[in-house]
Amino acid sequence: MTAALEINEIHKSFGTQKVLDGFSLRVETGEILGLLGPNGCGKSTVLNIICKLLLPDAGQISLMGQPLNQMNDKDRSLIGFCTQRSALYPDLYPAENLHFFGRIHGLSDKECQHRVGELMRTFSLNTFANTRVGQLSGGSQQRLHLAVALIHQPSLLVLDEPTAAVDVEARMDLWRLIEDLRDRGTTILLTSHHLAEAERLCNKVALMRNGKVVANGSVADLLLRMPGQAVAKVQSEDHQTITQRAMLRGWTVRQHAGHIKLFLPENLSLRDIIEALDGAKLTSLSVQPVNLDDAYLELTGEDEMMIT
Ligand SMILES: Nc1ncnc2c1ncn2[C@@H]1O[C@H](COP(=O)(O)OP(=O)(O)O)[C@@H](O)[C@H]1O
Ligand SMILES: [Mg+2]
Asked: 91 C-alpha vs ligand 1 centroid, how far in Å?
């Protein structure tokens, strides 16, 4: 089946700084894919290239099976882009912003009026109908920003860190809106450095490091690739004894931010772990099932590896 978006081996440097180095990714129709990586790793650069705001140095991109570099402005309207920095006009009212962007995307006045009414309702913006956008809270502005990206009913919605700049309450609210879009079959590519956000919203995640995707799949797929089902986090002055005892049990050991992580084959109790570490001095110990944070550190190689 034709992918909604297919990116093959993109390269991009800014001066001597290589930001994308053979970046490839496929987004299927109807899925919501989260591109994850730390600040500065190149997520926005990827999105800006997809949305033709930047040109890649090399590589191919196709949108709904059509090469991006052969598309005209009208075809580009297949994408709705919610950039990291708001593109809204602060002096205009919410409906005026929606109308303005609708016209930019080539909608007629009548089509605009219809869509604006629809989006003002779906995104609960009518309460703010008489407030200029600059006076709205960050969360409400972001809600409007999302609506603006959807004004022309794009085939692919691209969201750059949609909840990065809002408070916790607004984040929950935006998550619900994005979940609604997902449940209605909207194809979405979003970036995040918030792993819990991706775990909640995305069917698939792609982990980025050194300018490329190093692992991708559903969260469940990525967790299956972990060397255990649970992780014990241990603090101790005696790393050596702990490492030795854990190795005797066949557990995978990693060093992370001053503590030791032990990947366990099953979800053992604290008592079982203390017994297995037999006599090693512990300052603290906790155990929990593996989650996307562990998968991220493991699959991007961010943890200092002790034993593989
Ligand atoms: N237009 C640009 N000119 C020069 N450097 C840039 C430009 N855009 C991004 N960069 C650099 O590229 C790197 C990746 O940036 P970005 O794609 O914004 O990362 P992310 O979105 O993952 O935080 C950063 O080091 C950033 O400073
Ligand atoms: Mg960014």
From this structure: 29
